[in-house]
Amino acid sequence: DGVGDALVLSFAAPAGTDFSGGSQATIHGLSCEVQGSRDLEAFAEAVVEITPALVPAGWPTEAPDGWQYHSFRLDDPAGVQEAGFLRLSFDEEPSQ
What we know:
By secondary structure, the protein is mainly beta. 0% of the residues lie in helices and 41% in strands. The protein is built from no helices and 6 strands. A 3-stranded antiparallel β-sheet has the order 1-5-4, with no helix packed on it. The protein has a 3-stranded antiparallel β-sheet with strand order 2-3-6, with no helix packed on it. 11% of the residues are buried.
């Protein structure tokens, strides 16, 4: 899976949520973004989606009806990640 000892953030989102290779998606009027940091000062580190999503131990193997799993990690192709932090944020999309 190419994850090794990396920190992974897994979560369920409404079915149809599509991050399209990025770290941000919009669904049902909400903007959802996964952000990464090395120091908790700035969340500007690149993150990548792991496909297929990793399902944590104790979670149902399949997401409930109407939901799908997503997993992200910091983008660290050299595998030298010493410390890292991930967060998931939601914002309401402005009305058109």
